[in-house]
């Protein structure tokens, strides 16, 4: 909004200056030849000022364009560097998770192996116990049949 007010003010000032200068020339008591000469001089001055403003605007535009290009390049580099760091961290975390998962699988297999051995030992003890009880019952049954 501030740019628009400044722009409008400058345009208004320029137009006001031109109208004022023209009015002063036309209302001044001069001959036609002098008036034409003054108008020609004023037109030449206005043309030179316009060329100066154009040149200045062009130079400033180029400066701002190069500044914007530099800033966008530096921002792009920073973003690229940071994204590379993030990718590296993700790869590292993935690698760590993979190794931890492999360790967990190995530990689980070891625990399962130990449990299988314990179950086998326990089942052998149960089988022995059951055989012993069956033998005792069989002996009682035969003793009862013999009596």
TrEMBL record:
> Which domain of life does the UniProt lineage start with?
Bacteria
Q: Report keywords, A-Z.
A: Coiled coil
Q: Does the keyword Coiled coil apply?
A: yes
Coiled coil, from the record: 90-147
The protein depicted here goes by the name: YtxH domain-containing protein
Mind giving the lineage of the organism this protein is from? Bacteria, Bacillati, Bacillota, Bacilli, Bacillales
């Amino acid at each position: 909004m501030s740019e628009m007010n400044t722009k409008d003010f400058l345009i208004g000032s320029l137009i006001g200056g031109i109208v004022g200068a023209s009015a002063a020339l036309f209302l001044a008591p001069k001959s036609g030849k002098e008036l034409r000469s003054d108008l020609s001089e004023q037109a030449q001055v206005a043309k030179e000022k316009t060329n100066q403003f154009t040149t200045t605007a062009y130079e400033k535009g180029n400066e701002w364009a190069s500044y914007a290009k530099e800033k966008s390049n530096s921002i792009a580099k920073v973003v690229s560097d940071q994204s590379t760091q993030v990718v590296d961290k993700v790869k590292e975390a993935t690698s760590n998770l993979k190794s931890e998962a492999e360790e967990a699988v190995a530990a689980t297999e070891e625990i399962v192996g130990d449990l299988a051995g314990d179950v086998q030992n326990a089942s052998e003890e149960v089988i022995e116990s059951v055989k012993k009880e069956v033998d005792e019952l069989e002996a009682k049954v035969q003793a009862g049949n013999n009596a």
